[in-house]
Design goal:
With about 650 residues, this protein is α+β, with helices and mostly antiparallel strands. Helices cover about 55% and strands about 15% of the residues. It has a 6-stranded antiparallel β-sheet, with no helix packed on it. A 5-stranded antiparallel β-sheet has the order 1-2-14-7-11, covered by helices on one side. The model is unreliable at about 1-50 and about 600-605 (pLDDT under 50).
Length: about 650
């Protein structure tokens, strides 16, 4: 196998010289038509006339060669170009010298001449009339391989003889299975040969670089997708693509740091992996994975790798040829599944794979039969790299198709989720509205029940008492008046409790003062109103406000009825530094006082009425603490009512 195409053969795959017999062969003609359909397969074979002259120079067809294969005696014979060393001496290295008598070639206007070698190697020294005009690598040093591309050698005007033949001597050293030898030579004016040389180099080198970069990028992309998704399709292609990078770089890398033949074995192994994994990739794309065929592919891959290593280790080129035959047969076995998918299942991707697979199989047959074995006249460049590049584009199409399908699926999923969310929102909105109406109705019902209870317990009880008084034979006018006033106060407090307080305790207390002030004035009692700044407290219900008003109303009523006081001091203060924060309300009168014992009787032992007990129960209902005690002597005696109501700030 050569350094240019160790993946296929032990000979350079980029030589453009074609023997006349090969161009006339039917199979070769068919494969050449295929080559015209693939990149880099045009512009290499040029027609020559009967004398061997070409529009851009003279075509040299024969050379006198001195051949010195390792382990065999030297021989001198005339060879027809192109001459393939590995075909003549398979598995052997050696040295070769070629003597060619260049016919006289006229150069227009005395310009420089040139020699264009379509392929020569492996290490080369070129002399013209005894003068060294070019060298490629050092003779005998396998670190350089000149057989990987065309070589253009300029002939100085001083050395060119346009009127007489000249002696051209080409000395080469060759390594086994490396594709050395001598391909076609053209001699003529430098300008047209330089143009042809640039064309050949562009097709050969640029295509290999493009393929290597494309395989590297797509292999990296597939590897990244495999790491994220663990999809065997991406993992298989990543390995196949990265294997193909090595064989494409080898086509344009004349100075490889790995020694020969180790490098040849490495490139052959990479080529086997590239072909075998591409076949597995095709089955994964079609989702056709019969166990026997999958096992056959991996078995053929393992056998080909083994044969490649053995071929270069034992210097037996036929072993690697057998490995290539195994790979080719494996590819052919996979083709019916692709055809079935294209024509029976009518899958578009199967039709694309069928076209690419057919091209790859034909290109592989061309490289195996013509390039590797030299049958049907032989050929000197491979088509497989160009055919395999179609699989890179197929993977790119698959990635785009899968991405587009995923985006479409996500779009449909998002639309479906949006519709379901909207439906749920509508259901929740309806449920919330129904719950709100239920809560509103329940609040109205509770408020009605509270009003009925307040009317029954407050105004109703006063009216019942009033009814008992007026039904007596001689009702006391003062008692009647007192009951009527109490009934009015109860009704007013019930009405006041329905008014919004905005959680403002000062407003609740001011409303109570407004209701009681006329009675206090009528009784001649002075009211000292000492209410400090009270911050907004946490929301409290109307029931709590009513209970507070009733506690204070009972205290004021007791003063009016029993204390005979002339002065009442109302003190309200906020104590936010205590735990918990509280509002302290202190009501002090200067009346006769109401000594209270813990047993619920006065100092004379008479049972007290229900007023104080009601005050305590109401305070307990709103979570407040109520204390009734004698006032200090400095305050004029009387009674002090202290109410401490824990309240949280808003």
């Amino acid at each position: 196998m050569c350094t240019t195409n160790r993946k296929l053969c032990s000979k350079p795959a980029t030589w453009a010289g074609f023997p006349e017999a090969g161009r006339r062969a039917g199979l070769h003609r068919l494969l050449l038509i295929l080559a015209l359909l693939l990149p880099c397969a045009t512009g290499h074979a040029r027609p020559a006339d009967a004398a061997g002259s070409l529009p851009d120079g003279m075509d040299v067809r024969f050379a006198e060669a001195t051949l010195e294969p390792d382990g065999l005696p030297p021989e001198v014979r005339q060879v027809q170009l192109p001459f393939r060393w590995d075909h003549a001496f398979p598995g052997r290295g050696g040295k070769a010298s070629y003597r060619i008598e260049l016919p006289a070639v006229a150069v227009p206007e005395g310009g420089p001449a040139a020699l264009l070698f379509s392929g020569v190697g492996n290490q080369v020294a070129v002399s013209l009339d005894g003068a060294l005009i070019a060298s490629f690598g050092s003779l005998g040093n396998p670190a350089y391989d000149a057989a990987k591309g065309s070589q253009l050698v300029s002939v100085a005007a001083a050395l060119h003889r346009s009127s007489q033949p000249q002696q051209l001597v080409i000395r080469t050293t060759l390594q086994r299975q490396r594709g050395g030898g001598l391909a076609s030579i053209r001699y003529g004016a430098e300008a047209p040969l330089a143009s042809l040389y640039r064309t050949q180099q562009n097709w050969r080198n640029n295509s290999a670089i493009v393929y290597a970069v494309s395989l590297l990028l797509m292999g990296g992309l597939a590897g990244g997708l495999w790491l994220r998704q663990r999809d065997a399709l991406y993992g298989c292609f990543a390995l196949a693509a990265l294997s193909g990078v090595t064989r494409n770089l080898d086509r344009v890398w004349p100075e490889v740091p790995v020694p020969w033949p180790l490098w040849g074995a490495l490139v052959a192994v990479c080529y086997a992996c590239h072909i075998g994994l591409i076949a597995r990739f095709v089955l994964l794309v079609l989702d056709r994975n019969p166990p026997w065929l999958v096992r056959s592919i991996y078995g053929a891959l393992a056998l080909s790798v083994t044969l490649a290593c053995a071929s270069f280790a034992l210097a037996r080129p036929t072993l690697w040829t057998a490995g290539l035959v195994v790979l080719q047969l494996t590819s052919i076995v996979c083709l019916p599944y692709v055809i079935h998918g294209a024509f029976v299942a009518r899958r578009r991707i199967a039709a694309v794979l069928m076209a690419a697979g057919t091209l790859a199989i034909l290109a592989g047959a061309h490289d195996l039969l013509l390039v590797r074995m030299g049958l049907f006249g032989g050929a000197y460049y491979t088509l497989t790299p160009h055919a395999m590049f179609f699989f890179v584009m197929i993977l790119a199409g698959l990635v785009v198709e899968r991405y587009s399908r995923t985006v479409a699926d996500y779009g449909a999923l998002n639309a479906n989720l949006a519709a379901r969310v909207a439906e749920r929102e509508e259901q929740l909105r309806g449920a919330f509205e129904s719950l709100r109406l239920q809560q509103q109705e329940q609040a109205v019902l509770l408020e009605r029940q509270r009003i009925m209870r307040e009317i029954h317990d407050g105004v109703g009880s006063q009216l019942v008492g009033l009814l008992n008084v007026v039904t007596q034979p001689s009702p006391d006018r003062g008692v009647v008046e007192e009951h009527v006033k109490l009934a009015l106060d109860e009704m007013r407090m019930a009405v006041d409790s329905l008014q919004p307080t905005q959680d403002d305790l000062s407003t609740v207390l001011a409303t109570l003062r407004y209701r009681l002030q006329p009675r206090l004035d009528a009784a001649g009692i002075e009211l000292v109103w000492d209410v400090g700044l009270i911050p907004a407290v946490a929301p409290f219900a109307a029931q709590a406000a009513l209970q507070l008003q009733r506690i204070l109303l009972e205290a004021f009523t007791n003063v009016l009825k029993h204390a005979a006081a002339t002065r009442i001091v109302m003190q309200v203060s906020w104590h936010g530094d205590e735990s918990p924060p509280l509002v302290r309300i202190v009501l002090t009168d200067n009346g006769r006082g109401l000594p209270v014992t813990s047993g619920g009787a006065d100092a004379a032992g008479r049972p007290m009425g229900h007023g104080i007990a009601n005050m305590r129960s109401r305070a307990q209902a709103i979570g407040a603490r109520l204390e009734i005690e004698p006032a200090d002597a400095e305050a004029g005696g009387g009674t002090r009512v202290r109410l401490e109501w824990p309240c949280a700030l808003t």
